[in-house]
From TrEMBL, chain A:
The keyword Oxidoreductase applies. Pfam families: ETF-QO_FixC_C, FAD_oxidored. GO terms for molecular function: oxidoreductase activity. Keywords: FAD, Flavoprotein, Oxidoreductase. Residues 395-454 form the FixC-like C-terminal domain. Its cofactor is FAD. It comes from Haloferax profundi. SUPFAM superfamilies: FAD-linked reductases, C-terminal domain (SSF54373), FAD/NAD(P)-binding domain (SSF51905). It comes from the Archaea. InterPro entries: FAD/NAD-bd_sf, FixC-like, FixC-like_C. This is FAD-dependent oxidoreductase.
UniProtKB/TrEMBL annotation, chain B:
Pfam families: ETF. GO terms for molecular function: electron transfer activity. This is Electron transfer flavoprotein subunit alpha. Residues 26-218 form the Electron transfer flavoprotein alpha/beta-subunit N-terminal domain.
Amino acid sequence: MSAQETNGTLQLPKMQSETPDYNDAYDAIVVGAGLAGTAAALTMAREGLDVLMLERGPAPGTKNVFGGVLYTPTIRELVDVDSAPTERYIAEKRFSMLTSDGDETAVSMRPGAWRDEPHNDSYTVLRRRFDEWFAKQAVDAGVTLITETTVTGLVRDGRKIVGVETDRPDGEIRAPVVVLAEGANSLVSENEGLKDRQEREAVAVSVKEVFKLDRETIDDRFRLDGDAGAAYNYFGEGAVGEAVGGGFVYTNKRSVSVGVAYRIEDAANGQTPEATLDAFESHPAVAPLIRGGRRIEYSAHVIPEGGAKAMPDLVHDGAVVVGDAAGLVLNSGVHLEGTNMAVESGYHAGKAIASALADGRSDEAALAAYPRDLEDSFVVENLRHYDWFQQTIADDRKFLFEDLPRALADAETEYFKMDRTAKDEHTDAARDRLLDAAGGWFGAAKRAWRFRRMLS
Amino acid sequence: MNDGWNIVVCVKQVPDADDVTIDPDTGTLNRSDAPAVLNRPDHNAVESALALREAVGGTVTAITMGPPPAKAVLQTAVGAGADGGVLLTDRAFGGSDTWPTSLALARAAEELDADVVICGEESTDSSTGQVPPGIAAHNGWSQLTYVESLEPRPDEDVLVGKRDVEGGYERVAAKLPVVVAMEFGANRPRPAGLHRKIFAETEFEPVEWTASDLGIEDRVGLANSPTKVGGMDTASPVERERERVDTVDDLYEHIMEVL
């Protein structure tokens, strides 16, 4: 029974019983392989750093949820987006107000320019496929990705963060810098005192379902061809009932994503996500879009919507916070963005870490280039610009979500009414309906002033 | 054997059962979308191999047969604590059924001078359960199948297996070398340590053996596989009557009607 009997040259396996110690074998540990974490890891690897990226899911993307539209200008700088698994480019944006009586008033736009490459850098993607692909680009650049490993805490030496604790045996590992890209539900950052527990008003809950439909059916229903796709956003009582928020319908290649997002406070006050989504999907303006589709996915997530005011400190001695964990999500009603900001923050964090480590430093001051660069980027600029928005719509919810959509529907009904009255009279009646709802000329002017910044 | 036992654990890469669907038209498994993972019962095999090593000393060598990506399941085993790994990889193995597969594993176990070979009870993608007894048969070694737990007696070169049988259990003592098929769910597989997992996925390299390395190049592959799949069919579920009966007498009536 020895190797020599049949083949003297057969190489026996090397017994590798000793486990190496990987403490300080890596320059940085990234917590979470979502878009922010992967962008940071990829940027650092390109700068020549050894990076360990820890992900709790069995593969990147399996734990990630977003509505569905990814804006790719920064990703394009990092990787070859044209080989990415995108679903459809956004050829149409549509903003629609729904009443709970079944009325819809919509504005739709299809600029011809969006049909041309690079399609305004706007694509629907499925996170399970996209994030896995994006993380693979980081691995190809030299990043070590370890999945099914949850970071449970930080390791400190005095004030300085010097590593992470995971849920695995022998689970502590040290590195000069830790990048916290753990997402919206940032338990480690909160437990470790790097950020405050978020205010209920500043957090939204989102639920989403994906319905499988034939490609041709989607093309026909949404008037699309080729890789063109549609992003429909909905407001008003018909979208999210009594809550402050909105609904959305996005087209993928062979499926349609449908969801609602609204303040978690409204959910805590009794408006359940499943009932809200159910009502939205049953609305006469929405139901025909998904009719006959087979439900293949159900997911829920929290969204930090505190804006610039709610951003925690982004750098600490030995650590930075990026992406959703840093509250980098923009909701201005017209613009719904987060993943692009996550990538941008990961990119700037990665650059700052590389230059700090080049000087042999990882303290807060040495990493300060990250918040500085982010401050100068579109990310913080946009967050500050729209900081007023959330509170203003919350204050004016009844007008925006109930009275205005209904008044619009009534005015439309009046304006286009077919009877034997002169058109002039219909126009007057329609205008009266709108003015009534807006609080007369004076009220309308006040509101126009208050919301002028939405388009500025 | 005062330096412990040579323990070999056989592992297999399979499509994740959670993600495998059956094509209703052809009756074949739609594996393409499913990620490749370690066969679930093999986790129990790895765990009992590691526990056995703790009890008697020695080494655990993980072994798998498959294309180069099958290295991933060796990494899983080494991450959990196996000392080394062997990848049996060769185009000649392609299309092998359980007969040549167990021959290849048997020859490899022989090369490794195995005292104990541990396998999962069956694979989730074919469910034959034939490979562990096949290894024993090819080598003329003892076998213990559907084992719940192991009790080594190193002084006597004996391994005792507790087997689940109808109405209770039996304990079977087997002379080394022995092939063990561990029952699915028999133990609680340990999670990989963080540093060991990093090692397994970044630095660990298995040795690769071909069919000719094992001297069996003419005895493996599709041509040497005695079983052929003649066809596939799906069984459609029977629609239930969903009738409620209120009394035992009514129920009796119904049963008598059917009988």
